[in-house]
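Subject: design request, 76 residues
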């Protein structure tokens, strides 16, 4: 699970790259939990490893019918 500290570090990294992150930092600091809007913003500007992982799994499934993807997304 991604924590507030993780998000703050990622937002700081984006800020160092010249991306305006003040509204997202304020929202993150005011909220008791990590807001989904902040995670979406970070993912749009710097794709998270988890997104890359699922994209790779989907692509692998579509090409080879990989059962790992089915097992991960299947509801029990």
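Subject: RE: design request

Done. Sequence follows.
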């Amino acid at each position: 699970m991604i924590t507030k500290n993780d998000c703050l570090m990622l937002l700081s990294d984006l800020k160092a790259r010249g991306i305006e992150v003040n509204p997202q930092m304020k929202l993150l600091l005011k909220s008791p939990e990590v807001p989904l809007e902040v995670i979406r913003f970070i993912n749009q500007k710097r794709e998270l490893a988890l997104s890359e992982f699922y994209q790779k799994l989907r692509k692998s499934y579509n090409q080879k019918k990989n059962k790992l993807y089915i097992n991960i997304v299947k509801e029990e």
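Residues 60 and 66 are 6 Å apart (CA to CA).
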